[in-house]
Every structure is written in C-alpha cells, then in structure tokens.
Amino acid sequence: MTVTPVVQFGTSRFLQAHADLFLAEGTPTRAITVVQSTGAASRAQRLAAFTAPGGYPVRIRGQQDGQVIDEERRVSAVTRTLSTASDWAELSRVVIEEAQFILSNTSDSGFDPQPDDTKPEPMQSQSYPAKLFHLLAARHAAGGKTLTIFPMELIPDNGAVLKARVLEIAAANSAAADLTDWLQSCIWANSLVDRIVSEPIEPVGAVAEPYALWAIEAQPGLLAPTEHPAIQIVDKLETIERLKLHILNLGHTAMVAFWMENNGPDEAPDAIVRDLLSGPVGERLTQVMEAEVIPGFAAHGMEAEARTYLATTLDRFANPFLDHRIADIAQNHSQKLDRRIGAFLTWVRDIAPDHKAPVLDGLMAPEPAKGE
C-alpha cells in the first residue's frame, strides 16, 4: 500500500473537486487516505469508489475570462479509504507512521462538543476534535513528529478554533504537560476555501466551476501540502474574506433585493442568477458595484484587488452550466443584509465617514409600516 502523507477527514463532493483535485495535480502530487468520520453505512459505496482504478472524474464547467470551459479531469490521489467506525486501529497506524498533513471538512457543526468528547478512549460518538485528539495523542506516544493540520470548515479562524477545542479535550483528559506542549507545537492553519461544486457524479466525483481557491494564512514553519495555482499562502486572510463577503456575497444579496423590488418572487419565482445578470437586476448590480462598492474598497487601498475579484465574480455569476436559483439565495435575507451590506458600510465608514452609498443605504433602511 502506498504511503499517504495526507489524511483527510471528510468525503464530500466539495473535497473531491477541491483539495483532492489539487493534491492530484500539484507539485508534488500527494497520496491521500480518506476517512469517513460519520460511520454512515449509506456512504460505503462512495468510500469504495474513491480508490477505483483510474481515479474518479471531476467535470469543470463554467466561464473564465470570458471563455466557456467544459472539461473532465481525473483524481487518482486517493489510495486508501477508512472509517472511524470500523478501522480505528489502521487509522491510528496511518496517522502515527505516515501522516504529514491532516485535512478536514466535517461540516460547519463538526467542531461542536459531544457528550462523549471527554471520555478517555476514542469513541464513534465523539466529535471530530475529540477523535483527532486521540489520534494525535497516539502519534505523540509513539514518538512521532509534529504535523500540520488544515481544517477547511467554513468557520472564521478555523485553525485556531480547532486547536482550542483539541486542547480543551486534552485538559479534560488530564493530558501530561509534554503532550500538551507537543499539541501546541503542531501547526494549526487558518484557511478559507471557495469553489461552487454544483452536483455529484455517482458513485464518486463532482461537477465544479472553474474558479477555485484555498487560501492559507502564513505562520512560521507552515508549508502548503503541494504547489497548485488554486492554493495561496497569504499574510492575512482578511483581504480575501472581505473580497468574498463584500463582493460575491454582497452581490448575491443585492441581486435578491433588486429582484424582490421588481416583484420577482411573484413574477419570476424560479429566476436564476445567470438570467438576472443580463437584465435590469444585473444593470443595477453593475451600477452599485461601480459607484458604491469599488470606491469603498478603494478607501481601504484595495481598488485593484476589488476590480479583479469583481470581474471573476461576474464570470462566476454568468456560468452557463449552473442554474443558481435566486430564491435559494434569498433565504435568511435580513441576516444576510446585515452581515454582507451593513458590515460593508460600517467597514468603509470607519475610515471614510462621508462615503456615499445611497443604494446600499436604501437596501438597509427598514421598510415603512403600512399606511405610512
């Protein structure tokens, strides 16, 4: 069996078309052990298909730099699959003897504490951080070197959050000082990931847009698991987080607001982003981006980055293969207004109090009561 320097917790189609693809295409290529941490029997077929001869397909479909892309790539980096429910002994051996990097994407709730997390032995009912603690403790006990841990869950400061959870579990287990120091010495990377993975290919594989990003915040000793155009090591994640939140996400939310103002929920309940982009809603979006959003980024010295990111975002919105329903984006609209538009206005006016944004201000204004 091939030695696997990467141990990955999670089997999602996002990982299949994101990190797994990068590790297969990057320099150097990296062999992966994929770990199913839920123990769900319904995913056994998917787990077995990861290591099929010839790998599994990732179909890249969309628009980039004005050009339509429709191509298939193969991922053959996954050479072993295990389950925490049935393969704990082998998983422990792999983490002790082979692992250099640990990746995870266990859902946004994957870090949530579970009742059995403080038990002294590993259990299937434990959360991912608790299972990780027991695996790292076994590596330490065997004299293994520290390693680098890359959580990819959509949680701010995900590396710091995961480290804190593992150390809490270590304290609950009365871990010796040398183990705690060893855990502290591992590299816990904060990262941000982005790619729309629109549909699965059964039993394993996925359809994804051309755009892809795995941004990793720099820290001493940190190295990416491979070199790939989609992997960036950055001084701070804030710049990328602001671009994503206040251009891509803000753009989606502004389109929802314009669609609602034009009676879209009644007249076009099944409208998709691509079609709206080429009509009045898209025209208003372009105007607000140029007149209000780009100047806000310029106030922070980020105009060039914002213009480049906006062009990429409009390409993504125009993806001819992605039927992204505006009604789906409209869910939890009021909360999204606050986080995406309200937070943008606050961020800009903290340093430019006179920044004019009449359209965005109007979207944030409460609706008048009936009769007013």
Automatic annotation (TrEMBL):
The keyword Oxidoreductase applies. The keyword Phosphoprotein does not apply. Residues 106-125 are annotated as: Disordered. InterPro entries: 6-PGluconate_DH-like_C_sf (IPR008927), 6PGD_dom2 (IPR013328), Mannitol_DH_C (IPR013118), Mannitol_DH_N (IPR013131), NAD(P)-bd_dom_sf (IPR036291). Residues 6-218 form the Mannitol dehydrogenase N-terminal domain. Residues 238-341 form the Mannitol dehydrogenase C-terminal domain. Keywords: NAD, Oxidoreductase. GO terms for molecular function: oxidoreductase activity. It comes from the Bacteria. PANTHER family: ALTRONATE OXIDOREDUCTASE-RELATED, MANNITOL-1-PHOSPHATE 5-DEHYDROGENASE. This is Uncharacterized protein. It comes from Puniceibacterium antarcticum.
